[in-house]
Amino acid sequence: MSGVGFVAKTAALTRKDLRVEARSRDTLPPMLAFAFTVALVLAFTLPDATRASAKVVAGFLWITVLFAGLIGFARTFEVEREEGALDALLLVPLDRSGIFFSKAAANLVFLALVEVFLVPVFGLFFSLDLSSWLMLALVVVLVDIGFVAVGTLFASLASQTRSRELILPILALPVLVPAFIAGVELSADLFAGAGLDDIAARGWFGILLFFDAVFLVVGALGFEFAID
Amino acid sequence: MIRLEQVSVFFGPTIALDGLDTTIEPGITGLFGPNGSGKSTLLRVVAGLLAPNAGRVTFEGSPVATSDEGFVRRVGYAGHSAGLYSRLTVRENLELFAVLHGRVRPDLEPLLEQIGLAEHSATRAGVLSAGLKQRAAVARALVHSPDVLLLDEPYANLDDEAAALVSCAIQEWWTPQRIALVATHGAKKLKAFAHGGLILKRGRTVVQGSYRERPEAETFS
Questions:
Q1: What ipTM was assigned to the predicted interfaces of this complex?
Q2: B87: nearest CB among A1, A3, A23
Q3: B31-52 pLDDT tens trace
Q4: Where are the domains of chain A?
Q5: Are A93 and B48 inside 8 Å of each other by CB?
Q6: CATH 3.30.70.660 fits B2-210, yes or no
Q7: B interface mutation test: which of A14, A82, A83 has the most B CBs within 10 A?
Q8: Do β-strands B75-78 and B204-210 pair in parallel, antiparallel, or remain unpaired?
């Protein structure tokens, strides 16, 4: 009868979170509403949004993603809190890193859906050159992986406090700075039409890869202490 | 066998368990005592969900810990909260926990029938009545046929008919090597089939014994 491995159990937990969100719509709509509102306000704030520098727009984009993401991540463990399911979850034979990866994967899906919506909106509002969309997608994925690793880990810590919505940004923001600076620099280069060789030569990809690797490992190992 | 050696648990100035020293042998053991006597804390400590401030808890000689996959594979726990995902149906909840316990394509029908949830299996846990939710929580604790069953007030919110279903499920689950520790105020319901009892008061054992060996235990309430 036994035969469900680590990956299958982790995937089952991720599917559970996605199914719960599909039914409750508690996480994604607030993230989308926040992202769209900020994009709209920024578009009206700049004197001539269509001529804003690539770096300014890239900064706006990633700040919007950052705070939209934190809104969603703060709810990471809400479904477990509702009916005391965390105890039941802690009593399943699955390494704690499995719970971490399942939560991070669900957060990654939510964040990706926000970005799929947000990037074209920014493209429209700020007349961005999105011809390098494949490269941009790579940058987004690399930033997102580190972002969800840090966000999920700190969300598990913050979930055990009363003011978790406040604690999460305080814990996560300082740590996330390198990933978001890299995201801004790479996106700005892409929006400005820089070539792949120029972008690669600046080393930001390496920083992102290093950041992702470090925080995936730290998250997987540290989650046990955070959640217990 | 579950062994508790000088187990103490404090919540600030409140003493929940006060140097508790006891052994829980295979069988169905009722855990009784007034409110605040430490029953729920004892169950959480035995489940490994709460680390004692002092003393140690072992199951078959090994310390209990939720990080020990071998231990949690053998434990079923239903606490005060149902431990269910409110947006998932009863069946989806049970399937999820069965899969997490390593069951491939679990056959849930017998369990659902046994505990009287078959007709509610497609209902979301969040909209179940308190009694149905309680039964679903017991079903979740039983879904992987654990060797140790820890139930905290399984008869809460249940009418006599539903309580009988829960009692029946516990009895059918039990085999001579298994341990059930059931905290309840419904002593009469449990005494009908329990093998022994443990009365707690202010975090200490007042009386412990087998119903067969200690007739005075019939006075458990």
A1: 0.89
A2: A23
A3: 999 999 999 999 999 999 999 9
A4: 6-227
A5: no
A6: no
A7: A83
A8: unpaired
